[in-house]
């Protein structure tokens, strides 16, 4: 295995090997995946303290990846930080600490930052690939539980508006196996989960991958168990000032993706929308 030459290659290598790492190695990998920005400025002593390992473990860890010591890990993280800063600067985001301005103004600043970071991080090729998968697959399954349940509901609802064959996986107690019965190779399975990751979502996503479905993950960090096995991963910022983590970026991303799928399908989505409007009218779904 050749040594990674970029943070993206490092991230991929860590995700692929995570399950085979010993506990100390897994802690190091998790820090590298979840906080590359902090790692870019940590001494080996600081990193050892954060990962709860000996300094020599960091040297050996770098060596197993084909890198020449801990400084090589830091260099990859610093390159990543510089690349991200350049991307973000094109969107005019200032990297300054928030000044005290009350809950409402601080929430707005957080959400703007989350949206910019989420959308600037998207790789155009991965985006186009995902749109094509969701537009053309025979069936699409969408799963998200607990806090991610409303995101999954919205995605399934919007996709159903523009294409047939969309199923939301939301198992009742004891019905998880029943929900997995119809999974078929070449269908698409979308999973949504953030820390703390729901066990059922991870289990079903893993099973979908094993059965040959194309897998798409919407999650919060590269250390997510979904990111380690997904064919395509979208990392979504969800930092917030409210009691629970923000889902604003998830909602915006899902809405944009559904629109892109509709445009990809063209007249097929237009016909689907006409049918929906006719049925809504016939069944008097709306009060006016």
Explain how this protein is built.
- It is a single chain.
- The chain has 288 residues and is of the alpha/beta class.
- Helices cover 56% and strands 8% of the residues.
- The chain has a 5-stranded parallel sheet, sandwiched between helices.
- The longest helix has 20 residues, at 70-89.
- The chain is globular, with a radius of gyration of 21 Å.
Q: Could you give a short description of this structure?
A:
The chain has 288 residues and is of the alpha/beta class. It has helices at residues 7-17, 23-34, 36-39, 44-51, 55-64, 70-89, 102-120, 124-136, 149-162, 176-180, 199-210, 248-265, 267-282, and strands at 140-144, 166-169, 188-192, 214-219, 232-235. The chain has a five-stranded parallel β-sheet, sandwiched between helices.
Describe the secondary structure blueprint for this structure.
Blueprint: H1 7-17, H2 23-34, H3 36-39, H4 44-51, H5 55-64, H6 70-89, H7 102-120, H8 124-136, E1 140-144, H9 149-162, E2 166-169, H10 176-180, E3 188-192, H11 199-210, E4 214-219, E5 232-235, H12 248-265, H13 267-282
Parallel strand pairs: 1-2, 1-3, 3-4, 4-5
Helix pairs in contact: 2-4, 7-12, 8-12, 9-12, 12-13
Straight-line distance between termini: 64 Å
Strand residue content: 5-15%
Quickly give the structural class: alpha/beta
Let me know the average pLDDT: 85
Count of distinct strands: 5
Number of helices: 13
Radius of gyration: 21 Å
- Tell me, what's the shape? globular
Helix content: 55-70%
* Major sheet: 5 strands, parallel
């Amino acid at each position: 295995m050749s040594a990674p030459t970029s943070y993206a290659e490092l991230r991929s290598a860590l995700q692929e090997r995570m399950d085979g790492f010993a506990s100390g190695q897994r802690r190091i990998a998790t820090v590298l995946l979840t906080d590359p920005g902090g790692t870019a400025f940590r001494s080996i002593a600081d990193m050892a303290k954060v990962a709860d390992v000996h300094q020599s473990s960091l040297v050996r860890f770098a060596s197993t990846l084909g890198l020449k010591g801990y400084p090589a890990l830091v260099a990859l993280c610093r390159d990543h930080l510089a690349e991200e800063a350049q991307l973000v600067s094109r969107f005019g985001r200032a990297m300054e600490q928030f000044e005290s301005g009350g809950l409402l103004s601080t929430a707005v600043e957080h959400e703007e930052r989350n949206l910019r970071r989420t959308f600037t991080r998207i790789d155009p090729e991965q985006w186009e690939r995902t749109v094509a998968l969701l537009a053309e697959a025979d069936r699409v399954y969408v799963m998200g539980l607990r806090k991610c349940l409303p995101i999954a509901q919205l995605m399934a609802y919007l996709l159903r508006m523009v294409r047939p064959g969309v199923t939301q996986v939301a198992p009742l107690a004891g019905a998880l196996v029943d929900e997995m019965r119809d999974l078929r190779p070449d269908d698409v399975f979308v999973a949504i989960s953030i820390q703390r990751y729901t066990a059922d979502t991870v289990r079903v996503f893993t099973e979908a991958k094993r059965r040959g479905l194309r897998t798409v993950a919407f999650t919060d960090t590269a250390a997510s168990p979904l990111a380690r096995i997904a064919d395509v991963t979208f990392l979504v910022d969800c930092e917030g000032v409210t009691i629970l983590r923000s889902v604003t970026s998830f909602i915006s991303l899902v809405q944009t993706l559904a629109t892109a799928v509709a445009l990809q399908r063209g007249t097929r989505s237009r016909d689907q929308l006409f049918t929906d409007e006719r049925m809504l009218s016939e069944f008097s779904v709306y009060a006016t």
